[in-house]
Amino acid sequence: MSDLKFDGKTVVVTGSGTGIGQAIAKRFAEAGANIVIMGRRKDPLDQTAEVLSGIIKKANSGGKVATFPGVDVSDEEGINNMFEGVKSEFGQVDIIVNNAGISGPVKTFTNASVKEFRECVAIHLTGTFWTSAAGLKTMTKGGKIITISTFFSEENRYEQRPYRFRTPYTAAQGAKNRLAECLAWELNEMGIRSIATNPGPVHSDRIYKTVYPKAAAEFLRVGGYPGLSSTEVEIVTEKALPYLGDADDIVKKACRDAATEIAAKRGQHDEVNISKLADTVTAALAKMQEIAEKIQANTSKMIVDGEFLAQDEVADMVLNLSDEKISKLINGRVVPNDRVFYPVKPVIGTGIEILPGSELKNKVIVLTTTSSAQKDIDRVKSVAGIAQVAGAKQVIVLYYNKGDEIHFKEFHSHAIDFLDETAVRRIFNTARTHFGPIDAVIHFTGDYDCNSAFSTMPRRKWQDLVDNFIYIPGTLVKESVIAMAPEGALTEPAKFKGTRGTITIVGPDAPVGKKISGVLRARADVFRGALRPYTATINQELSDVLGSNIKLHLVLAGNNEGAEPGADRLHSSILSLAAGAALKRNEAIFYVDEARN
């Protein structure tokens, strides 16, 4: 009998061509496992496969390596085909390590494109969901799903860790933590365990060459740099920043290329101006490096020994979590291995000061909803009606499903595709032109069926949930903030300073009933888990980065006892937030039905 701990086991590691994924694959190869590696690029996978084969030969384990290049974890067909191939070659999968990830946009949320937002969520969250769901068809009792998440999001519903410039990342990671918990509940009877781990800062090119430098560049874009406009700082970020740390001649050429493009856009093609701009670009790049190093140093100071984890240490962690005894002890947990003492302000509240209706007088209020459920239609109509009676200057209702027109005829209302960023921006601009500045936007997400298991959910149904609870709120919040700011704020971020307004997302309710099972609670919290860290991060960017007085609130109805949400409390709380009741409070996420009467 082999002494190798994972001899004969088959381990699938996503995003395994480089970095942490490669380190994990190597550890399992040393322990005797068959290794399945996959990723978008072929060359790194081929190189990793060669390394793994050498490790297996040295361990004399009889393990094998299977590579699946060109497979993106967000690609449904690609993942399906991969698992069919794995099943054909190895019979079953014993361990899945959800490791694949990308940096995503490292930008203020107002400046990130919808494409960047969606790609980040698709890789981190949908990739984890579908790799787990598709992989289950090849797993049996004793299987493990290990999900690598992040310490910058939420480790529980009360501790929110905002991560400025990373809004889609925090939304995806928050939901991913909760999904890992949920899968543990759903798969318990099958004898399959699900654990998430948040390793915290890890030595990697992604942090040193992408995340920190891009964050530094964004500070300059928003805060300004002498001699360059915000859009010109973006050119430096695109043309020169990727070469930071390369040979001097390469950096010099990149700065010259950026200067040439800036000069052309200014209509200054002469050599004198290009040379001067090249000096300015070089200095701006040096400033970006200085800020990036400061970010790294500040993060290190929050770690007890001042050290980021090595990739091999993360691999050891994953190997330990896959152990039969340890996985039983911590099944369903999100293990915070980051060691970072990250002080955060409390953002969770319950009671809201109820303001008199007169505070809504002369305000332009936009209500939006994607739900056709009668409960949500009644909520929208009630809140809109109260606002009208209170003397709001204009109440506008926007709904997703055209068939809901009949419900909102007494209001100024329109059907709109909230997934279409251009359509949302156009209608907000129209409202501002006709009725004046928008003071408040209130969005109702509606609920989802918590009786439906995520582990067996069709991909299309999952995508509908992501659209409704992540992509649409993301688009509406972004466009609301832009609509509340002066024209030109996107290219001149300083114009966001001092802007006012409120945005409130009314998220999915807690489950209702006398006895709520653990699995129902876990399912209900998956997309709440996306909206909480998203809300915390947006508010940090609005206040600390943009200097705006606009505030985003998240209202989550229902309570731990399973009682029906109180309609009067909910409606008055929503409208009080719209009127500015919590603008000067740090709390932004409210469990209104948890407040004492």
Describe this structure in words.
By secondary structure, this protein is of the alpha/beta class. It folds into three domains: about 10-200 and about 310-335, 3-Layer(aba) Sandwich (Rossmann fold); about 205-300; about 350-595, NAD(P)-binding Rossmann-like Domain (Rossmann fold), CATH 3.40.50.720. It is built from 16 helices and 15 strands. The protein has helices at about 20-30, 40-60, 75-90, 115-135, 165-185, 205-225, 230-240, 250-265, 270-300, 310-320, 325-330, 375-390, 420-435, 460-485, 520-545, 565-580; strands at about 10-15, 35-40, 65-70, 95-100, 145-150, 195-200, 335, 350, 365-370, 395-400, 410-415, 440-445, 500-505, 550-555, 590. It has an eight-stranded parallel sheet, sandwiched between helices. It has a seven-stranded parallel sheet with strand order 3-2-1-4-5-6-7, with helices on both faces. The longest helix is centred in the middle third of the chain and has 30 residues, at about 270-300. The termini are far apart.
Short note summarizing the structure:
Helix content is 47%, strand content 12%. The chain has helices at 19-30, 42-59, 76-90, 114-135, 167-187, 205-223, 230-239, 248-266, 271-300, 311-321, 324-329, 374-389, 421-435, 459-484, 518-545, 567-578, and strands spanning 10-13, 34-39, 65-69, 95-98, 144-148, 193-198, 334-336, 348-349, 364-369, 394-399, 412-415, 440-444, 500-506, 549-555, 589-590.
